[in-house]
Amino acid sequence: MASPLFFTSAPPFPDDVPVAQIARISLEKLANKDAQEAKAVFDACTSLGFFLLDLRGNSVGEELIKDVDAALEATGETMDIGPRRENALHSTYAQMLFWGIMKTKNGKPDRCEFYVVTQDDILHNPSRFCIKDDDPFHTHPFPNPPPIESRRHHLEGFVNRGQYAITLVLRAFSTQLGLPENIFRERMQPDQSSGTIIRLIRSAPSLTPEEKRTGLVAHTDYGSITLLANVTGGLQVLRPDADPSDERGWEYVKPEPGCLIVNIADAMVQWTGGVLRSNMHRVNFVPGTQALVPRHSVALLVRPQMDTRMSRIVGGRIPLVSEDGEDKAKRAEELKGLSAIVWERRKAMALREGRDIMKSRGGRALQPLAAV
Ligand SMILES: O=C(O)CCC(=O)C(=O)O
Ligand SMILES: [Fe+2]
Q1: In which domain, by residue range, is 103 found?
Q2: Considering its fold, how many domains does the chain have in total?
Q3: Angle formed by the axes of helices 152-177 and 35-47, to 10°?
Q4: Chain segment 347-371, per-residue pLDDT in tens
Q5: What is the atom index within ligand 1 of the atom nearest the CA of 281?
Q6: What ipTM, to 2 d.p.?
Q7: Which residue has a Cα nearest atom 1 of ligand 1?
Q8: If residue 343 lies in a helix (H) or strand (E), which one and from where to where?
Q9: Which stretches within 23-58 are classed as H helix?
Q10: Quick one: which atom of ligand 1 is closest to the CA of 295?
C-alpha cells in the first residue's frame, strides 16, 4: 500500500463502516523465517484467502512502498489520456489486453477502467501474449503511455520487489505444507514468460445514488497470487460462510498505510488440492467522503509461468487426488495436468462467456502437522 504521506491525498476511510477482520503479516518477520508468522500467513490463506502484508521495517518493503506510490500516481495520469470508449468491450485483441473497461452482469460498461502492463515487458522476457506475428507485443520494450514510461524504473521495482515479497509468502506456505521451499516459486518464476500483469485501475467518484453501485463485479482471481494497493476503500471480500447474493456477507477491506492487500488466486487452490483458498471479492462504491475523489488501485496479478503444469502437487500435506473420490477421467486429467497457458485460456474464455460459476474455492481442512 502507499506511504502514509500518499494517504493524505484522499479523505480518510470512514470509521463508522464495518470492515473485514484481516490478519496483518509482517514482511520483515517472514524474511527472518519467523515460524509463528509463517503459520499466521498460512492460516489466513486457508481461511479467508486474504491478508494485509506490512512492508514497513523491511528494507525491500520500504522501497516497494515508494514504487507503489509512483504506480498509483501513474494510474490517474494514464486514465486521463486513455480511451473511455463505450465500445471498448469489443475493441481489438491488442486494445482489449491493454485498455479496458470491465463488464457488468448485463454487459454494460462497469465503473472501472484499467490499463495493463505485462511483467514480460517490464522484465524483458519473451512475451507470453505473442500469438500472431503482427502482435504489437513483439516490440520490446513495449511503448506504454508516457505516464508509465516515465516511471518504468518504479514499475520494475514494483514487480521485482513485489515478487520478492511473494517469494517469502510462498516459502511460508511450503514449510507449512511440508514441501520443498521452492515448490511454488518454481512454477511462477518472474524471468519466465507468463500472464503476470500489473493492472492499473481507476473508478470515477461515486456521488449520485446511480453511481453508488458495484465498480468491479464479484470474482476470484484466476492466477496464483495478487498484490493490491489502494488508498480509497471500495474493495469488499465475501465472508467465507456467506452467500454471494446476500449483501450482508460483503465486507469492506480498509486500506492501511504501508501495507499491501494480498489474496490467493485459483492456481494455488489447484496446486494444493483445495487447501489454499481463493476468495470472492469485488469493488463496491467507495464509502464515506472518500467517494468524492476518483479511486485508484494497482494490482500485481501473478500467474503461473506459461510452460508449467497445473496438476496437483504430490507430497507433504497435500491431499491425494485419490482421496477425492471423483470420477476416473477427472482424476486422470488432474494427475496429468494442463499446461498453465491452456488452463488460463480456458478460465479466461469461460469468464468472458459467462460459463464460469463464480464461487470461492479451497479452504479444505488439513491433517494437523504432527500427524503427517
Ligand atoms: O481494485 C481493487 O481493489 C480490486 C481489483 C481486483 O480485484 C482485480 O484487479 O482483480
Ligand atoms: Fe481481483
Answers
A1: 4-371
A2: 1
A3: 90
A4: 877 776 766 667 888 898 887 665 4
A5: 7
A6: 0.99
A7: 297
A8: helix 340-352
A9: 27-31, 35-47
A10: 1
